[in-house]
Design a protein that fits this description.
2 helices; three-stranded parallel beta sheet; 3 strands; alpha/beta; 94 residues
Length: 94
């Protein structure tokens, strides 16, 4: 009889640290993407955030987009944000 024993702690992947993206001097005249991740109420929060921008920062254009699945890359959405956006806020749920 063969018995296999696995270490439940696993082995985390090696990661390289990266610096944050440079901060924009202003959001005026910029396009900010509000990215909805599939968690409860994230859509409601992003809609309220877009309304806040419209009322308080009218020179900021917001565009709401939704991810298909949390933690999975969406090349088409990422390409859109990179090409047309200046910043992005990713909502992870409430």
């Amino acid at each position: 009889m063969t018995i296999s024993v696995y270490d439940p702690r696993g082995y985390p992947p090696k990661v390289e640290g990266r610096s944050l993206a440079p901060r924009l001097e202003t959001l005026d005249g910029k396009v900010v993407y509000l990215v909805i991740a599939p968690f409860d109420n994230t859509d409601v929060f992003m809609e309220r955030l877009a309304a806040w921008f419209k009322e308080n920062r009218p020179r900021v254009e917001t565009r709401i987009v939704a991810t298909e699945a949390f933690g999975q890359d969406s090349p088409a959405m990422r390409a859109e944000i990179e090409a047309a956006g200046d910043a992005a806020v990713v909502g992870l749920g409430l």
